[in-house]
Amino acid sequence: MTGSCQETLDRLVEAATGSLPPGERAWIAGHLAVCDNCRREAAGIEELAALLRDEGRVIVPPGFWPGFMRRLGERIASDRPPLPSRALRWLASPLHALGTAALTAGAVFAVMLAVRAVPLPPQPYLVDARARGLVTQAMAETLPSLGELLETWRAGLPAGSDAPAEQVRR
Amino acid sequence: MAAPDAEDRDLIEAFKLGEESAFTALVIKYREGVYRIARRMLGNHEDAADVAQEVFIRAHRALRRFDGRSQLYTWLYRIAVNLCLDARARSVRLPVADLEEGRHEQTPGPGTEEAFEGREAGRAVVRAVSALPPRQRAMVALRLYQDMPYQEIARIMGCSEGTVKATMFAALRKLRGALIEEGVLAP
Predict the structure, then answer these.
(1) Contacts (Cβ under 8 Å, ≥6 apart) of B176
(2) What ipTM was predicted for this assembly?
């Protein structure tokens, strides 16, 4: 046996089962053309591979796959991980952000609908009362000039005033 | 190292995002291959069906951690082969030397032969393949019946490509000898 024979035998199974690149197949064909031993070996392997493929067919029993899928689904369902693990997985998922956003939007929408559904009692349209309602005690104490400023605005600037900016600043 | 094909990658991503139907699609895609490997390694329908179920249960648990550095089918077939080797080790307690040298006589289970064509040649092939040591049988199943490249087989079996080639060559010689003895092949 020569070095070429050993290299050929190493590749014969691949050649016989069709997984050898074309370049290497051509090299082996060249060797087989001049080597009787390797040619016999190659013929034997090729015949065997063909027989194994032809006679080794597996027949799946009819109706097997639907039952297989059903059983698998049941087993997967009963194989659920414990709640903390599922919760962690859910939190780690990007779906978590989407889910939270959807829940928040839904909650806000529900509150808006509820508020709209309850009619408010009619209120007299009193501008002064509403303006006074906006000025809290804290605001009046923090900004003592605020009340005076409001009075000035309400009364309008005095005619002929030569220092409106100064009044406003005060 | 080949990454998963685009379809598998999309399905895996969808499953990781919580889409359970993506896993169902992967099962439908690979169940046949997984079952056939198990059937050829174990020799009967019932055990092969159990192993196939277990493969997908384990895949379902672990798919979120699948790193995508290999083909998905390589990963699934590796689980299948390991489960079959474990199942065989549990059911047939033979000395390791006997397993490795393939000297033990293995009778195919009752469900085996009916799975193949009813011809005598088919039964002889089943007997010859059943008599191979489990790892050789796995390699024959992966190469001849699943058309897997040696590189992928080596990854599944956890050995070098050279070992796969040498083992395949030895397995085919053994099969040829057995089938010549049975009178199915000419000497």
Answers:
(1) A44, A45, A48, B185
(2) 0.80
